Amino acid sequence: MLLSSVAERVYWFARYVERVENTARLILVNNHLLLDMPRASALGWEPIVSITGIAEKFYQYHKQASERNVMRFLVMDANNEGCMLQSLAGARENLRTSRAIFPRAVWETLNDLNSFAIENKAKVLTRRERYQFMQHVIDSCHLISGKLSASMSHDQIYEFVRMGRNIERADMTSRVIDVRAENLLPKHAEEMKPFSDIQWKSVLDSLAGYQMYRRYVHVRVRGDEVLRYLLQDAYFPRAINHCLDQLEQCLRNLPRNEAPQYALVRAQRLVRNAKVEKLVHGPLHDFINDVQLVLIDINSELTATYFEGKEISPAVYFNMPHQLASA
Amino acid sequence: MAISWNDYSTEGAFDELIGPSGRARAGAGKIMQYLRGLNDTDLRERREAAELAMRVMGITFTVYSDEGGIDRVWPFDIIPRIISAREWQTTDDGLQQRVQALNMFIADIYGDQRIIEDKVFPEEVLAQSVNFREQCMGVKPAFGVWAHICGSDLVRDADGTLYVLEDNLRVPSGVSYMLENRFVMKRVFPELFEDYSILPVDGYSTRLFDMLASLSPRPADFPTIVVLTPGIYNSAYFEHSYLAQQMGVELVAGSDLFVGDDDCVYMRTINGRAQVDVIYRRVDDLFLDPEVFNPESVLGVPGIMRAWRKGNVAIANAPGAGVADDKVVYAYVPQMIRYYLDQDPILQNVPTYLCVDEAQRAYVLANLDSLVVKPANESGGYGMMVGPAATKKTRSEFAELIKKDPRNYIAQPTLSLSTAPTLCDGHVEPRHIDLRPFILSADNRHVTRGGLTRVALKKGSLVVNSSQGGGSKDTWIVETGGH
Questions:
Q1: Is A99 part of the contact surface with chain B (CB cutoff 8 Å)?
Q2: Which domains does chain B have, with CATH numbers?
């Protein structure tokens, strides 16, 4: 018997850990990119503010998206509840209240990471030390995932870990596409053309996907192909399609999955049927907006069904529509 | 040589391991000999191994600070406290007798109140009891048992007599430390367990589960049992989660439960709602149901009292059981045993002066320098005065308190708690101890084999509470053979 409250804590624990890793990755890649770009380029830290969805809040406190301001806000500013330290605290609190469920080693790694981040936060303000800091954060997050995968029973509880991780991943991928594409697509200034490639490469890098892209997509890094890869690839862990497939597998192992599965199928249709070559030259922003809305729907259905205990009629319960998912 | 028993002084108190002539008491000889054979390094290694085991197993209690709760390891002394099986049998009988009478008393109070009618127990004591819950009147829990889990504190005075100091009938804690202490000792001193015949304590979780299962209102093979905790900020959270794990039942907070339209209790699970049959609650009465008690409580479950009164769910300990957990009511336990069971008490009560009685109050006020004064309803050693150690000012303050609210105070002679050898900086010194056995009651009763021995680690201190410099020891009930 899995308590709703436990499932909810496990799910959010996984989301927070994934968010921490994603934030670290974004910062790291932007760091690299800035070194490659010409001084005149408008590109700075502003896109990162947009990607993480904190723009409104950020500009309440800061006039400029300067490197220092953005770094503080993303990593340690208590005014930003999505900052790295707050996400770590969130992960820790959720784990602390369900320690009996998780392998002890996971608790230890998360505790270590949390202390490390608090003690070393000042390092993110200098470019030289920032790299090591972010790399350590990413490695620790992987260590947590690895320990979970290798030493926790892959039962219903674990499905909530996977669901949290994958929904957060899909969300981040959609944000990265949205903001980067805004800067990269046709309206782009002429003198920036030579740098277009490295920007698309950075998109892949921020999702740890460059190497895999080269292996699977046998063309050079090109906008539409990158987009297709990140949206529709079935195997790349951060491709939205893959994340949705993972959710599908998780839901199959859970009871009362009708409503969440229904939301999931809508998301899968939207992503799989997207005409990428048209999107590239047009309504990409609106499309990504739709993707984020269906992800929110899935989250809401999971919340209502599993965390808030929405009751469904026994008739539905005994007639779980497995076939829906493969529609 | 690390440990020299010749330097060990047992003066002034009864020592549990060593008699007045310096000779080992029954059952203690082998352990004294064993410890004598350990050098400094051995001792340090054993102590460190025990500490590490505690840490690794996560045996902690929570201490509050500005940064939220901090989990601390509870100090553990590696020298066990030893009680002969022969003496323990009498104690076991005495505790069972006591808890049986206490349960009959609670049932009577919430029923016909015969004991008041027969003038054995004064009505005004009940009228002023803060733990009496009128909402429980007329309820008849299974087997007539209200206090399913009782933790009674035992102390031994200088003359060797074992006294019951108090009975904790609300949400007694500490049993997880008793279980873990034994586990640690087995890891650290396996060789001692080969030489000794020590009664095992392991069966407690199973007994607890069986006891709780027997309370289920639905005759099902697998009743749904939960442990209800106030949450991670409670100092006993470790124990709540430990017991839930050991029994293989869910650990829930109030928000995990709700009462349906059918007045049954359900928990929210990913499969939808699941009916709950038995609740082992570690939440105080007053926080249990905001509809009935404290409306501000977020720890409880609205409607749970309704479900319980209708017999749709069992709650252990039953709401209202604390009416017998009151230091004034305590004074009447010997009378209860005679009244309900027609037996003489096997275990002694500490002589208790009730300040509500004029003659007794006069005695207390005249002898404040030699008595311990305690408020009737506090636990954990709060708000009390130890006369011989108190300043003149404190004594006169307490005199005023007593005169103002006599019902709320009792006084007892200052007992010199017994001592046991305790490892302090590499050598042994006597430290004061008490003992908390746990008694389970439903269709039958079971007393733990020994219990939790708490030790005041500060020299001369009589305070054994974990929050105030107390630690614990493993408690061995040993077959001594012969005698």
A1: yes
A2: 1-197+324-349+420-483 (no CATH), 218-312 (3.40.50.11290), 351-413 (3.30.1490.270)
